[in-house]
């Protein structure tokens, strides 16, 4: 009698690699092996171990999920690009190298920038998009690296502590409790963890983010794909008004704003977020 293989969860899925132009890119897969996969695109400084296990496993309960480390980040080789366009080129190359003909995209923060470029460059490659805690190029407040953001990030690198506790959540009682729970979840995986982002990689990503914020706005009206936009109501990294702007400018978008939540609102409200993402990905009619 054949035994069914155990499911590949956020805390057990092995780290794999794929070659792209002579460089090794690290990735992980979760959930079923069939169907249109959901490709997750990282936030600023993030590595494979920074995705919330509840979000990964929640979406992987129905959908194939793929996460990967960007070039020069975590377990992936090469030098970190200094433009969002170059990061999008890498993501497209990875998707092609994995033999995928069409994908859904889940872009969080910097990953949301990358998702917008991917769908603009390769519209036939993308079926649906989730944009969380992110904004459009040249948007008001988008790409601003504030003294507080930079200070918290540098402090985290120097002290080996994670600034997401402060940057992703509000400082209310609910926000502080959600931050502790989230940081605890990120430590659940105890083996096969990847290297943290180097100061050089952080500097390259900061430059890419600043360039994104300084460039001319994209023609988001040309993106006809169904899009789910989500954020917390008090995002101190990428202003929540940028999410409203995205939902307004994208012709086929719906918007979810989570209360008493910040940049990491989709992690604080992970149960509701996962339910809404799965409903959105199932729907044959576009926005929910």
Task: Write a structural description.
The protein has 288 residues and is an alpha/beta fold. It has a single domain, classed as Alpha/Beta hydrolase fold, catalytic domain (Rossmann fold, 3-Layer(aba) Sandwich). 37% of the residues lie in helices and 16% in strands. It is built from ten helices and eight strands. The chain has helices at 53-60, 84-97, 110-121, 147-159, 164-167, 173-185, 199-214, 240-249, 265-268, 270-282; strands at 16-20, 23-30, 38-41, 65-68, 103-108, 126-132, 227-232, 253-258. It has an eight-stranded mixed sheet, sandwiched between helices. Strand 5, helix 3 and strand 6 form a beta-alpha-beta unit. Helix 1 (53-60) packs parallel to helix 10 (270-282) and helix 2 crosses helix 3 (110-121). The longest helix has 16 residues, at 199-214. The radius of gyration is 17 Å and the shape is globular.
In spatial order, strands of the major sheet run 1-2-4-3-5-6-7-8
The CATH topology label is Rossmann fold
Q: Any idea what the CATH architecture is?
A: 3-Layer(aba) Sandwich
Q: Categorize the overall geometry.
A: globular
Counting DSSP H or I runs of 4 or more residues, the number of helices is: 10
Q: For this structure, what is the CATH homologous superfamily?
A: Alpha/Beta hydrolase fold, catalytic domain
Overall domain count: 1
- Share in helix: 25-40%
> How many β-strand runs?
8
Query: Which value, in Å, is the CA radius of gyration?
Result: 17 Å
| Name of the CATH first level | Alpha Beta
What about the largest sheet? 8 strands, mixed
